[in-house]
């Protein structure tokens, strides 16, 4: 009986202890959930089971395929994959495909603009690299040398031989830095510009080069810490933009045609045309008005080549004096209507400066010959027709005030509060949220480096941020070793691209349901923050991922930050595209529902038979 009483007391004590423990546990759980920190709890269990991402095996981010290291068979089939496209698609650009382009009108260069394939013509295969493809030379050597195997096109070496664009030497192309208007080299040409324009010192940071050739101007402006957005059409000057990007210089396939440029208003410190073949004197000044739209108040426009300098060069240009004189007169008239001040014309180079504000140009305000563009959102440019009208500037209180706000010189402007933020022009963002965003992305990038410690070492020269926000990812990485193409999806709730430019960075609008205006294999690293959540139900994830694969170099890296639901789907598709992938927890811990997916594109070429 004594033994029975002892056992009963023990069971009673144990029961009381268990009940007390459970009560305490559920009480604390309730307090925790009501505090707001427990919202990801149910998700965390699913994540840990699905992704097994508490331990992150190292991915190899080094390149393994130089000119002396090219295995015959570089990939093997372990899982069902997307099939490679035929070798003829090696340089495929879906929205600038030549056969489709030739079905469109030639007026205003419409046929050279973006014309993306309909759904039934999209390719669902992997674009192959050419046989013998190797990792590009590191910057700055890449500025001067490109492997022939990577861009096997020699036509420019013949067409532009005397203009010093590019020379073919052995197994490489050499770029001496020349151009149509500066055969003696871009350095001397830039020195000429710098005698008039404050190129050094950070006042001029962002530039636009229209009809850029192989982007030698942009390549050499980098020495002055000027970041140039260069563009040229995909035309008979074979692979000019491809060469630019292979050199490690920002560029995209584009043309000044019938559509507005994919930039907000008031973003470039300087715009440049060196014999770019754009008919500035035609279309009622429409092209000059588009340049005026994207130029910052007080910005500079440089025009060299015909008709500038016609008194000396008219015979070489095989045009009459009257024809060239008339063309320049019209350009001067349009510049006057825009209230641009001509500050120099010397040695075949003319330079104008844009007005600081509309108050300083009363004659333009009252001129009935000049149409004013309707006031719309500055981001309302995607597939929008260009018009012969002048874009109004933000209002000012005095003739000396810079419309929209004055910028700090670079690099101070990188982290200074942008005027668009300070003046409340960007809905949903304040000075405080801007500063918090900078701090947040510093943490994010530090977390990335724990997995990929090559992030800012120069291993990745050309970087794409697919959903750039305020540009804080690029700001953290800012370095002469790399540059970032900051893309703001045109479907984003708020346009932030103007802010990005005010920080001294570059980028453009885009719709990721379509192909980007670049050649295959032109980016070393792609960053995608919230892209797949943004495009949920807008288009297929396969379309976005296949486009990422197209523009990513072999052995290039990908960092995707998104919800766990999106990333689980993305990882399955990525594994079927010959990517090596790893899921990782948010730097805040496993209970945060946002996760990260790191990936590396495997090396394979058009002649490969199996997977490495």
UniProtKB/TrEMBL annotation:
<dbReference type="GO" id="GO:0000139">
    <property type="term" value="C:Golgi membrane"/>
</dbReference>
<keyword id="KW-0735">Signal-anchor</keyword>
<dbReference type="GO" id="GO:0032259">
    <property type="term" value="P:methylation"/>
</dbReference>
<dbReference type="InterPro" id="IPR029063">
    <property type="entry name" value="SAM-dependent_MTases_sf"/>
</dbReference>
<keyword id="KW-0325">Glycoprotein</keyword>
<keyword id="KW-0472">Membrane</keyword>
<dbReference type="GO" id="GO:0008168">
    <property type="term" value="F:methyltransferase activity"/>
</dbReference>
<dbReference type="Pfam" id="PF03141">
    <property type="entry name" value="Methyltransf_29"/>
</dbReference>
<keyword id="KW-0489">Methyltransferase</keyword>
<keyword id="KW-0808">Transferase</keyword>
<keyword id="KW-0812">Transmembrane</keyword>
<keyword id="KW-1133">Transmembrane helix</keyword>
<dbReference type="InterPro" id="IPR004159">
    <property type="entry name" value="Put_SAM_MeTrfase"/>
</dbReference>
<protein>
    <recommendedName>
        <fullName>Methyltransferase</fullName>
        <ecNumber>2.1.1.-</ecNumber>
    </recommendedName>
</protein>
<keyword id="KW-0333">Golgi apparatus</keyword>
<comment type="similarity">
    <text>Belongs to the methyltransferase superfamily.</text>
</comment>
<dbReference type="GO" id="GO:0005737">
    <property type="term" value="C:cytoplasm"/>
</dbReference>
<feature type="transmembrane region" description="Helical">
    <location>
        <begin position="12"/>
        <end position="32"/>
    </location>
</feature>
């Amino acid at each position: 009986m004594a033994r029975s009483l002892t056992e009963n007391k023990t069971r009673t004590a144990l029961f009381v202890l268990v009940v007390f423990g459970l009560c305490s546990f559920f009480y604390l759980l309730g307090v925790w959930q009501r505090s707001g920190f427990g919202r990801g709890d149910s998700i965390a269990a699913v994540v840990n089971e699905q992704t097994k991402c508490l331990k992150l095996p190292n991915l190899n981010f080094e390149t393994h395929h130089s000119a002396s290291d090219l295995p015959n068979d570089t990939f093997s089939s372990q899982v069902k994959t997307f099939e490679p496209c035929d070798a003829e698609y090696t340089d495929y650009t879906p929205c600038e495909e030549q056969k489709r382009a030739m079905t469109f009108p030639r007026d205003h260069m419409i046929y050279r603009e973006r014309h993306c394939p309909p759904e039934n013509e999209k390719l669902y295969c992997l674009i192959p690299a050419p046989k013998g493809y190797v990792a590009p030379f590191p910057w700055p050597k890449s500025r001067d040398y490109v492997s022939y195997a990577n861009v096997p096109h020699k036509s420019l070496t013949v067409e532009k031989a005397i203009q010093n664009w590019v020379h073919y030497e052995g197994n490489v192309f050499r770029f001496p830095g020349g151009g149509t208007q500066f055969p003696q080299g871009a350095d001397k040409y830039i020195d000429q510009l710098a005698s008039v324009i404050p190129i050094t010192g950070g006042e001029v940071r962002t530039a636009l080069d229209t009809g850029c050739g192989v982007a030698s101007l942009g390549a050499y402006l980098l020495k002055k810490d000027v970041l140039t957005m260069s563009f040229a059409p995909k035309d008979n000057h074979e692979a000019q933009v491809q060469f630019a990007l292979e050199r490690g210089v920002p560029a995209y396939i584009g043309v000044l045609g019938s559509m507005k440029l994919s930039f907000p208003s008031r973003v470039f410190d300087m715009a440049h045309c060196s014999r770019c073949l754009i008919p500035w004197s035609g279309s009622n000044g429409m092209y000059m008005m588009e340049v005026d739209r994207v130029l910052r108040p007080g910005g500079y426009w440089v025009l060299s080549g015909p008709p500038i300098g016609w008194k000396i060069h008219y015979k070489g240009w095989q045009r009459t004096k009257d024809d060239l004189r008339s063309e320049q007169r019209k350009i001067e008239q349009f510049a006057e209507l825009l209230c641009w001040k001509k500050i120099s014309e010397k040695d075949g180079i003319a330079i104008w400066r844009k007005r600081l504000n509309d108050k300083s140009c009363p004659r333009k305000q009252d001129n009935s010959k000049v149409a004013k563009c309707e006031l719309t959102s500055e981001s309302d440019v995607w597939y929008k027709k260009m018009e012969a009208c002048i874009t109004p500037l933000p209002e000012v209180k005095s003739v000396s005030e810079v419309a929209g706000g004055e910028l700090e010189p670079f690099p101070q402007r990188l982290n200074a509060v942008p005027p668009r933020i300070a003046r409340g022009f960007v809905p949903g963002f304040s000075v405080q949220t801007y500063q918090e965003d900078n701090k947040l992305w510093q943490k994010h990038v530090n977390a990335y480096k724990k997995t990929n410690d090559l992030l800012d070492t120069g291993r990745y020269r050309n970087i794409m941020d697919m959903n750039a926000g305020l540009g804080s990812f690029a700001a953290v990485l800012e370095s002469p070793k790399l540059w970032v193409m900051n893309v703001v999806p045109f479907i984003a709730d708020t346009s932030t691209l103007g802010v990005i430019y005010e920080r001294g960075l570059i980028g453009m609008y885009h719709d990721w349901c379509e192909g980007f205006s670049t050649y295959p294999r032109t980016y070393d690293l792609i960053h995608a923050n919230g892209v797949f959540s943004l495009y949920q139900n807008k288009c297929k994830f396969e379309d976005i991922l296949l486009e990422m694969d197209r523009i990513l170099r072999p052995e290039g890296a990908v960092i995707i930050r998104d919800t766990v639901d999106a990333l689980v789907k993305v990882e399955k598709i990525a594994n079927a595209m010959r990517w090596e992938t790893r899921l990782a927890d948010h730097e805040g811990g496993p209970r945060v529902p946002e996760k990260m997916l790191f990936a590396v594109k495997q090396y394979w070429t058009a002649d490969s038979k199996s997977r490495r």
